[in-house]
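Sequence design from tokenized structure. All designs in this work follow the same two-part layout: the structure record, then the generated sequence. An example of the structure record is given first.
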């Protein structure tokens, strides 16, 4: 298995495996998001990967994508838009410091339990940290036991914040300063 950083460069065929895996993963519980299509995911990736200091990592085995993660720099206004939690509450947590957001982490069902999610997360944290951010935030579902374990092992702390649109999803924070 090898992990590589991908850059959106007008060659979407490089991202098809990620988009296909994305659709499969988010159909599973606890997400149950069966509305994703490869086309929608490709549009979303293209939009998100244009954000400041965006990083996309792909894990592949024999050229088949078995996992991915991505993140990018955010502001407290961005976090408010994602969560619908007030800007003032995010300001209380992050202040005027720079932060990034881990938007996605996924590992194919057949490849779980092999440390791929942990390796992807550690590499993403290193990349975002090298961009000079002070905090990294993310959200995950309370039933996503594997993801929660990966984030705890990586030093994230669960905040007392619940997503207003998805009440089973909570926010996590890792301090880099």
């Amino acid at each position: 298995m090898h992990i590589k950083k991908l850059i959106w460069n007008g060659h979407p065929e490089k991202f098809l495996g990620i988009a296909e895996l994305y659709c499969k993963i988010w159909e599973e519980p606890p997400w149950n998001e069966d509305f994703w299509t490869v086309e929608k995911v490709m549009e979303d990736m293209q939009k998100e990967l244009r954000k400041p200091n965006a990083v996309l990592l792909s894990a592949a085995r024999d050229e088949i994508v078995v996992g991915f993660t991505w993140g990018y720099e955010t502001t407290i206004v961005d976090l408010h838009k994602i969560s619908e939690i007030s800007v003032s509450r995010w300001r209380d947590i992050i202040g005027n410091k720079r932060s990034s957001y881990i938007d996605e982490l996924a590992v194919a069902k057949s490849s779980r339990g092999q440390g791929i999610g942990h390796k992807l997360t550690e590499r993403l944290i290193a990349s975002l940290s090298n961009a000079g951010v002070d905090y990294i935030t993310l959200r995950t579902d309370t039933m996503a036991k594997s993801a929660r374990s990966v984030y705890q092992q990586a030093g994230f702390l669960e905040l007392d914040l619940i997503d207003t649109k998805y009440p089973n999803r909570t926010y996590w924070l890792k301090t880099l300063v």
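Residues 116-130 form the longest helix (15 residues). We note this feature because it recurs in several other targets discussed in the main text.
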